[in-house]
Write a structure and sequence with these properties.
alpha+beta, Arc Repressor Mutant, subunit A, Beta-Lactamase, 5-stranded antiparallel β-sheet, 8 helices, 7 strands, 45% helix, elongated
Length: 241
């Protein structure tokens, strides 16, 4: 296994392919061993042979792509965990994809627990800051389409009452301003969401706090926005995973 990995790494370093003898020399493997491993790797799809030269095959490229995705996700998870510790609050990352609200990552801890998803986040975007922030980034037609599928329903005494009231609220949200909600999704919790600019993808990072810490909400959201702003360029690829 170790020798096969060494061969794969060596082939990956040759954009225009390499012959077996060169690969044997560079890996320090005996030529018969190299031929045997190359045949096996070609058979398994990890390498392909063309005119006596060896190149990475589809199986190796799939592994590379999967590894890159995992690395990007790890970068996002690490960033969220750092901001959780700095802010003393759980941090969420979500996107609006193919007509659905998707919470991609949550960084919380025993002392800073995330809000319990007691009602499906996808169906209750009108009630939580994540959903309101994502919907505010859509055009009017996409908002109405979403509400046709997931109409407003009261979850707490503080939830917006109907589709019309929600649409009016969304129109008033200023671009790049934090979106806040106070006990609209869950009693005892307040939330704020920061819009992210990721090309045409609607995305957000958000925080939640216990209602008795509501005075911390907007300052913490502003701090998160500043933290994101400092690293958004380097995170842009990762958070578009």
């Amino acid at each position: 296994m170790q020798r096969a990995m060494r061969l794969l790494e060596t082939v990956a370093g040759h954009e225009y392919g390499a012959p077996a003898k060169q690969l044997a020399r560079e890996t320090g493997l005996a030529l018969p061993t190299t031929y045997h491993l190359l045949r096996t790797l070609v058979h398994e799809g990890y390498l392909r042979r063309d005119k006596g030269l060896f190149f990475l095959g589809e199986a190796a490229e799939r592994l590379s792509s999967s590894g890159a995705r995992q690395k990007r996700r790890s970068t996002v998870v690490d960033a969220l965990a750092h901001w959780r510790d700095v802010l003393g609050a759980p941090v969420y990352y979500a996107v609006y994809r193919e007509g659905e609200i998707e919470v991609m990552c949550v960084a919380d801890a025993p002392g800073t627990p995330a809000v319990e998803e007691w009602a499906d986040f996808r169906e209750t975007g009108h009630a939580h800051a994540i959903g309101q922030c994502l919907l505010s980034q859509l055009d009017g037609e996409a908002r109405r389409d979403h509400l046709d599928r997931y109409p407003v329903q009261p979850l707490t005494p503080y939830t917006v009452r109907d589709n019309h009231s929600l649409l009016r609220r969304l129109e008033r949200i200023r671009r790049m301003e934090p979106v806040t909600e106070r006990q609209e999704y869950a009693l005892g919790a307040v939330c704020a969401a920061i819009p992210l600019t990721l090309g045409t993808t609607a995305a957000t990072m958000a925080i939640s706090l216990p209602a008795h810490q509501a005075d911390r909400l907007l300052p913490a959201a502003r701090q998160l926005q500043a933290e994101i702003g400092r690293v958004l360029g380097s995170l842009a690829l990762s958070i578009s995973m």
